[in-house]
Design goal:
This protein is mainly α and about 160 residues long. The longest helix has 24 residues. The radius of gyration is 18 Å and the shape is globular. The termini are far apart.
């Protein structure tokens, strides 16, 4: 069995929701519900395009990273608007979502991984960017910020 069995993440999310509700932890319950709702929407979309089992673990990890990125963007806006209450809320949601993700790679690790993939694929120009990013996504789902990674890759291929 791989490092995450099929459906392990789904089980962890369901269990987490149950325990948050028991503990009457409103923020945690709401955040986990948001993740599960997003997952359900994407499962439905995946099934309608022929993937009967819905999203894979890697796709769920990528979805959660997108949720974190959206919250980081919101934090920037709320900071400009001096809405510290909302900044706090988004930050605590990020912390909750991150609990379900594997350990995040540092910028150095992202650079090293990007260089390795570029070398392995023999990528030589920006035309290979999609191929390199696809390979990084499949190897490091949930572990790296692909927004940052694409800037690194672009820099290395330019």
């Amino acid at each position: 069995m791989g490092h995450t069995g099929r459906g392990m993440l789904r089980e962890r999310l369901s269990e987490s929701l149950k325990s948050a509700m028991k503990a009457k932890d409103a923020r945690r319950s709401a955040t986990v519900r948001l993740i599960l709702a997003a997952l359900k929407d994407r499962d439905i979309a995946a099934r309608s395009s022929g993937k009967s089992e819905g999203l894979s673990e890697d796709e769920i990890l990528n979805m959660m990273q997108t949720m974190i990125r959206q919250r980081r963007d919101s934090i920037e806006m709320y900071k400009k608007g001096r809405r510290d209450d909302l900044v706090e809320q988004e930050e605590s949601e990020i912390r909750i979502i991150e609990e379900f993700l594997p350990k995040q790679m540092s910028e150095d690790e992202v650079s090293t991984a990007s260089r390795e993939v570029i070398e392995e694929l023999g990528a030589s120009s920006i035309k290979n960017m999609g191929q390199v990013m696809g390979e990084l996504r499949s190897r490091y789902a949930g572990q790296m910020d692909f927004g940052k990674a694409s800037q690194v890759v672009k820099g290395l291929l330019s």
